[in-house]
């Protein structure tokens, strides 16, 4: 169920770029609905994600927490995200990012979404308690969410970790070929270079886009790997990034 939830969230991700539906309101409506199990707001994820695209692999990238000075705090955050990323994600998108970035209408929308989530959770668990199945309902929500969080951490780290710093959308992103089953369930999000260069391309055309972009990908020596877990394991062994480590790593790839 956590694996399938990852697929639902990749559909939600397309909504942040307004490409899952033609009508903008449908993207907002589905995105708000799909993200409910995560207890974070769609507007918070969307605003953060668009900033990530705009400032990919720079110090302004809100998702670039893997890059630091390899201090104790960097190690704690890096490995905590690898193990329990879903909880850190909830804290980031529910509190830290909205408090730092939102004012006026966006703040109102964010907290209205959180209030909606709390109201739905209260209604569901009120019913579950009345039926004597509260523990079962909690388990069917909580444990898939934990597994989803792990899959999401693997995906998130693999997409950009170790790619050249401050080198643009193409070079600063990794595509993972993975396998056709994974690509289907996760809506081709693994073809991530094409998505970053052309974010308006919907999920069902990303494989075709990758084939068209292959000459440019090769000419820029952009990174294409075969396995999410191989990249994730390598990242866990190497630990958090530093600029010096990143330069050395990418210099060795060009030899």
What would you say this structure looks like, in words?
Helix content is 69%, strand content 4%. With 255 residues, the chain is mainly alpha-helical. The strands form two sheets. Strands 1-4 form a two-stranded parallel sheet. α4 (72-101) packs across α6. The longest helix is centred in the middle third of the chain and has 30 residues, at 72-101.
Lay out the secondary structure.
Elements: H1 2-16, H2 24-34, H3 42-54, E1 67-68, H4 72-101, H5 104-131, H6 134-160, H7 168-171, E2 174-176, H8 180-185, H9 192-197, H10 206-219, E3 223-225, H11 228-238, E4 241-242, H12 243-253
Parallel strand pairs: 1-4, 2-3
Helix pairs in contact: 1-2, 1-3, 1-6, 4-6, 5-6, 6-11
Search tags:
255 residues; two-stranded parallel ribbon; mainly alpha; 12 helices; globular
What kind of oligomer do you see?
single chain
Summarize model confidence as the mean pLDDT.
96
Total strand count, please? Answer: 4
Rg on CA atoms, Å = 19 Å
Number of domains: 1
The side-by-side strand order for the widest beta sheet comes to 1-4
Task: Give the uncertain stretches in residue-range form.
Answer: none
Assess the beta-strand content as a share of residues.
under 5%
**SSE sequence, one letter per element:** HHHEHHHHEHHHEHEH
Percent of residues in helices: 55-70%
